[in-house]
User: What shape does this take?
Amino acid sequence: MRVKAAPLAAGWVVALLLHAAGAAAQETGGFDVSGASVPAEQILVGGPGRDGIRAIDEPGFAAPDEATWVEAANPVLGVVEGEEARTYPVHLIERHQIVNDEVNGVPLVVTYDPLAGSPRVFQRRIAGKTLSFGVSGLIYNHNFLLYDRETESLWVQFTGEAISGPMVGKRLPPVRVRQEAFAVWRDRFPRTRVLERPDLHHIDYRQSPFLRYIVDDAAIFPVLASDDRFHQKEVVLGVVVDGKARAYLGSLMTAAGGRAEDEVAGRKIRLTYDPGEAVFTFDVPDDVAVEESYWLAWKAFHPDTDVWRDPGAAGKGEDG
Assistant: This one.
């Protein structure tokens, strides 16, 4: 397998935090943002520069019984195309943020942003081009920006929209992704293939470098909208139907016994939440967008969201 760019610098998480706390230098790593669809001053340096966090370009996979680096309770990202299922353990992909993959003949980019807590998967063929992606080193709205190597356009990981470069205004087609315990995903798809550890020579995948970040109730980059009623890193499963966004927060799900049956714009929503592993399972119609993230990122990208069983708005967002 091939991992793009130079070895990961030691202490890059510390560097990220120092960059955020210090001057938000308006360098853009050589990317042209003069025609960006967002104000250029909102595109910020995020710590390691271009490809300082290395995308996985030639991923290797193993059978579930061979994947000794994943325990049953570990959260994974699961993707299905046709008859083929893939598993991407979060503790691996958070170190690389991007996997350029092909599943059942469909070119996909599998992404995870540890700052926003957001797993996203997109088709990477658009406008007649099959793109390959790297980590730009830039941040917008507390979310990392991908760049494609073919046109050097910058893309928002949360939405899949290009905000600068020749592809500006285009959106990558989204692909449904589930984030759940490995045991749950493996039960769904016993023949799934599991992402191998791509860089054991340079990275210790056994412990997340983001543990302190997750418990800190603060954003480290500016956001376009915020709400401090909940912990900023509270896990959220959000749905969007016909432009209407609703957030299901882990704490509120736990208080309700870990289950929710709801209706949004006429669509039935059924969820469960495991507070021990902080993962959701869901059963929703295919036309309902499902987007997981931390609360700070969900609010930043969905400022008009409502909240299921919102303690500050009795009756708002309740199921029946």
In short: The chain has two domains: 12-188, 223-307. The longest strand covers residues 106-113. Residues 4-12, 17-26, 314-320 have pLDDT under 50 and may be disordered. The helical segments are 12-21, 90-93, 182-188, 211-215, 250-255, 295-301.
